[in-house]
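Dear H.,

Thanks for agreeing to be a second pair of eyes. The structure we're designing against is below in token form, covering all 438 positions.
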């Protein structure tokens, strides 16, 4: 049976490389519609948990995993492994590995490169490879393809596409099925198979002319957000100086039924996409002797926001006659966004680091992240979430709300804390002199 028939009959074995916030939802969706799935991850602990039907990501249902690993009637539809020697088994391989930045803010494609070499070592005729990791235009054709095409011909022996991930962790309104999937192929035959694969699991497939166009589409989506967030962050600082409430102004502006989309300010950008992806394009643009000044300016504004928050913390403490140094500061929320258990690139962690450098005694509470340690940019950071009690609130010189989790009892916090700095407008209904905005 050829690959197209296997895909249409849901008999193709789907291999997903990287079982994190992108890969694991794909496992569930492909398994849900009936495909057999083999997951690959370098972390043996994660592999063991998944094979027991356990989830290590809050919004990923362990019950759904168990249905795939130990179904009541059918054969298991999912298994995980850390044996990369098995990459030749699946008919389809979907790459969902991290694409971070180096300390110099340049693309770090080590994970994509090493995964590509591992695939090449077992590549066989009839396999389809899809790269989903966000990257600069040209990665699939210039970095992945040459390694895979050393012995086999693309479009005839094997097939290669790029289809950018569009996960929004913790968003109950959108999932893999409902989010349209962009796909670009190296050849028309690659595109046809890639589109057919994703059509089995998503409501809408959007095909584009090349892998470069698909790569650029993902960058455009996130650069659009990064630039508009930078704009609103800059206006927030101006409004604070002018004695205006930026959130009130946004609410008024968004009543316009056309030509305006609301964006909201915050303590800085977080997550694996928006703080990182724009710099993939600024790096690639230099190859074309082009300076992406607009993107770089937005990056400067957004990366400066944690410093602005710390300066506002110093101002708030100064209003009470206290210096920042040696003050006890309780940070509420270190996840990068509301109600998730993910603190990758979180502005809260940067804020904690700056506060400590300036001599503050910092603790944190986050109901979703009991421990914060082992972070790439902060290897020495090792903290545990403290209980959120009357005592911890009242003993803090400043309670700094960075992430507005739904679990927080804002009335209780407002009544117990001596001084509050709110970076999310969470306390908008509380008119009190001890609540400052940042």
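And this is the sequence the design step returned. I haven't edited it by hand at all.
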């Amino acid at each position: 049976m050829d690959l197209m028939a296997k895909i249409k009959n849901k008999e193709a074995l789907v291999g997903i490389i990287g079982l994190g916030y992108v890969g694991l939802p794909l496992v569930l969706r492909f398994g849900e519609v009936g495909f057999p799935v083999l997951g690959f991850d370098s972390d043996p602990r994660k592999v063991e948990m998944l094979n027991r039907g356990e989830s290590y990501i809050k919004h990923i249902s362990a019950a759904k995993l168990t249905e795939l690993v130990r179904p009541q009637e059918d054969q298991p539809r999912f298994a995980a492994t850390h044996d990369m020697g098995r990459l030749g088994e699946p008919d389809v391989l979907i790459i969902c590995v991290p694409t971070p930045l180096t300390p110099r803010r340049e693309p770090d494609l080590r994970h994509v490169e090493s995964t590509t070499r591992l695939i090449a070592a077992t590549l066989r005729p009839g396999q389809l490879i899809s790269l989903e990791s966000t990257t600069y235009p040209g990665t699939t054709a210039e970095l992945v393809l040459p390694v895979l095409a050393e012995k086999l011909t693309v479009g005839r022996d094997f097939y290669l596409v790029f289809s950018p991930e569009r996960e929004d962790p913790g968003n109950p309104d959108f999932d893999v099925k409902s989010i349209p999937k962009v796909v670009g192929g190296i050849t028309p035959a690659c595109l046809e198979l890639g589109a057919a694969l994703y059509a089995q699991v998503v409501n809408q497939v959007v095909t584009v002319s090349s892998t470069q166009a698909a790569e650029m589409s993902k960058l455009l989506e996130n650069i659009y957000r990064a630039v508009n967030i930078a704009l609103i962050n800059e206006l927030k600082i101006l409004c604070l100086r002018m004695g205006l409430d930026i959130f009130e102004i946004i609410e008024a502006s968004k009543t316009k039924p056309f030509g305006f989309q609301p964006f909201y300010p915050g303590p800085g950008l977080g997550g694996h996409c928006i703080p990182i992806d724009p710099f993939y394009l600024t790096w690639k643009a230099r190859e074309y002797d082009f300076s992406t000044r607009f993107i770089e300016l937005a990056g400067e504004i957004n990366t400066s926001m944690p410093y602005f928050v710390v300066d506002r913390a110093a101002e708030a403490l100064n209003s009470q006659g206290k210096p920042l140094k040696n003050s006890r500061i309780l940070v509420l929320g270190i996840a990068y966004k509301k109600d998730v258990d993910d603190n990758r690139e979180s502005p809260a962690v940067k804020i904690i680091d700056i506060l400590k450098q300036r001599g503050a005694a910092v603790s944190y509470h986050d109901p979703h992240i009991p421990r914060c340690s082992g972070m790439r940019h902060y290897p020495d950071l090792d903290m545990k979430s403290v209980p959120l009690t009357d005592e911890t609130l009242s003993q803090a010189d400043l309670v700094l709300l960075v992430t507005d989790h739904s679990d927080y009892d804002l009335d209780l916090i407002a009544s117990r804390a001596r001084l509050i700095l709110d970076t999310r407008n969470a306390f908008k209904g509380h008119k009190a002199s001890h609540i400052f905005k940042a």
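Two observations from my side: The chain has a mean pLDDT of 95. The chain has two domains: 3-209, 226-437.

Warmly,
E.
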